[in-house]
Structures are given as C-alpha cells and as structure tokens.
Amino acid sequence: MLVEDVMTTSLKTVNPDTPMSEVVSMMCLYRLSGIPVVEDDNKLVGFISERDVLDPMFPKMEDMMDGMSAINMTAALDKYSNVVEMKVRELMTTKVISVSPDIEILKAAAKMVGNKFRRIPVAVNDRLIGMLSLGDVHKSIYLAHAKTRL
Q: How far is 127 from 83, CA to CA, in rounded Å?
C-alpha cells in the first residue's frame, strides 16, 4: 500500500507570516500537533509543531546543570505569551523532512519512527499534497489485517 492511498489531503496550513496566536488557536481547536508552513502554490517551506511552541517554556540543559531546573509557572506563562506574539517564521523548522506519495506506507512509517514524528508532510517537488500520520498507517494495517481474517 502506498502513501497516496492513505494520506490526508484535507489540510490546515499556515504561511511564514501567520501570527503564532492563530497557530496555537488552530492547534488547540483542531487538535493538531503540527502544521505545514507553505508559501505560494503550496510550496512547503517549513513545519511548526507543538514542540516548537512549548520548548521555550522549559529550562535549557545548561540551566539545569547550574541547578536552575525548577520551573516557575508564572515565568513559563510569560514565555508562552512571548511565543504567541511571534510570527511562524521565527519558530518554524525549515529543514522539513517529507515523503513522496508513491512510497510504501511502511517505509514512510519507518522514516517517521526514526525521526520521532507522529506525522509527516507528503510532497512532490517541494509542493505539499498531503499529510501522513502514524494513525493513518496503523488504520490501514488494521484494515488489511481484518480483511485477511474474514
């Protein structure tokens, strides 16, 4: 089974100039752990994830080594407020790993697992055409398994 057989094509996307306030609203409202960042003609230029949003709230390794590992909720919320006032381009990952629609789903799943991703963009010539999640892969494997049992 190929990626194009199970990928999602109804996508939520943002552009590099989208305010992070819109992004965090989309993430919470639509339960999205990450959103592709596209420019004109669906050119994939980045990816913004919940991790990109939340990482600034937590102490860095060097702070933890210096004994400053206590997390102050008020300070964390202040950092979150700063993130919400940014633009996507300030936080997005620009070295996007994607898969092609014509590869086997297990090969795509191996790429996701190897990179610790729950979802991955599907692109052709840097143009976003879909998203594949581990849930999509699991569901297709389950259905194939169920068919062999009938």
A: 28
- CATH code of the region 3-149: 3.10.580.10
Question: Are 93 and 104 within 8 A, CB to CB?
Answer: no
**Residue-level pLDDT, tens digit, the chain, 150 residues:** 999 999 999 999 999 999 999 999 999 999 999 999 999 999 999 999 999 999 877 766 665 555 555 566 677 677 888 889 999 999 999 999 999 999 999 999 999 999 999 999 999 999 999 999 999 999 999 998 898 887
Which tokens go with 129? 């055409």
Separation of CA 41 from chain center: 20
Answer positive or negative: Cα dihedral of 56, 29, 21, 49.
Answer: positive
Contact, 5 vs 105, CB < 8 A? yes
Measure the CA–CA gap between 45 and 42, rounded to whole angstroms: 9
CA 54 to chain centre: 13
Quick one: which of 139, 117, 113 has its CA closest to 36?
117
Where exactly are the structural domains of the chain?
3-149
